[in-house]
Write a structure and sequence with these properties.
Blueprint: H1 25-67, H2 75-112, H3 119-126, H4 139-165, H5 168-182
Length: 183
C-alpha cells in the first residue's frame, strides 16, 4: 500500500513502497534527499546570476543614456521603453524563481517527515513563514522591489522629454476633455 502525502494531487504519490528485502532503501532515500536539497540551492545560485545580469544590463542602459543625455532626443523614449521591458522581464524572472523555490521547499518539508529531523520545516516555523518583517523578510520580497524602482526610473527619465515635446494644443484639449468628463 502506498502512503499518501499532502502533495498527492492528481493521484501523484511521492513515496514508493519500501520493499522489506531492500536494505539500501534508507541510504538511497537520504542520497536523493541530499541531491534534491543541493539542486534547490543551485536554483538560488542561478537566481543570483540572473539578478547580476539584469543589474548589469540596466546599468549599461543607464550609462548609455548618461553619455548622450543632451543629444539623445526622441531616442530617450525608445531607451526608456527597452528599460521598462527589461525591468519587467527581471521582475517576472524573480517571481518565477520564487515560485519554483516555494514548490521545492514544500517538497523538502514533505520528505523531511520521513527523516529523523525536520530541519528546514522547523527553521521555516521559527522564522514565522517569512510573514513578519521583524522575524524574517524573505530576500525575494526585497528583490521584487528593485525592478519596480528601475521601471519608475525609466518613466521619470523619459517624462521631461515627453512633456517638453508634447504639443500644447493637445494638452489643452486633454484638459478640457477631462474637465468635462469629471463634471
Amino acid at each position: 500500500m502506498q502512503k499518501r502525502t499532502v502533495l498527492q494531487e492528481n493521484a501523484l504519490v511521492l513515496f514508493n513502497e519500501k520493499n522489506d528485502n531492500d536494505n539500501e532503501y534508507d541510504k538511497r532515500f537520504f542520497e536523493q534527499y541530499k541531491l534534491y536539497v543541493e539542486l534547490t540551492d543551485r536554483i538560488s545560485q542561478r537566481r543570483s546570476i540572473a539578478n547580476s545580469f539584469f543589474i548589469t544590463a540596466n546599468a549599461a542602459l543607464l550609462t548609455i543614456v548618461s553619455w548622450f543625455k543632451d543629444n539623445f532626443g526622441c531616442y530617450i523614449l525608445l531607451v526608456s521603453a527597452i528599460g521598462v521591458v527589461l525591468a519587467l522581464f527581471w521582475y517576472f524572472s524573480i517571481r518565477s524563481y520564487g515560485q519554483l523555490n516555494s514548490g521545492r521547499f514544500k517538497l523538502i518539508h514533505e520528505i523531511e517527515c520521513k527523516l529523523p529531523l525536520n530541519i528546514f520545516s522547523y527553521e521555516w516555523e521559527l522564522l514565522g513563514h517569512g510573514k513578519s518583517f521583524k522575524t524574517y523578510w524573505p530576500l525575494s520580497h526585497v528583490e521584487r522591489i528593485v525592478p519596480l524602482i528601475f521601471i519608475v526610473l525609466y518613466i521619470a527619465l523619459c517624462l521631461p522629454y515627453y512633456l517638453r515635446n508634447f504639443p500644447c494644443e493637445v494638452l489643452v484639449d486633454f484638459q478640457a476633455i477631462t474637465s468635462r468628463v469629471l463634471l
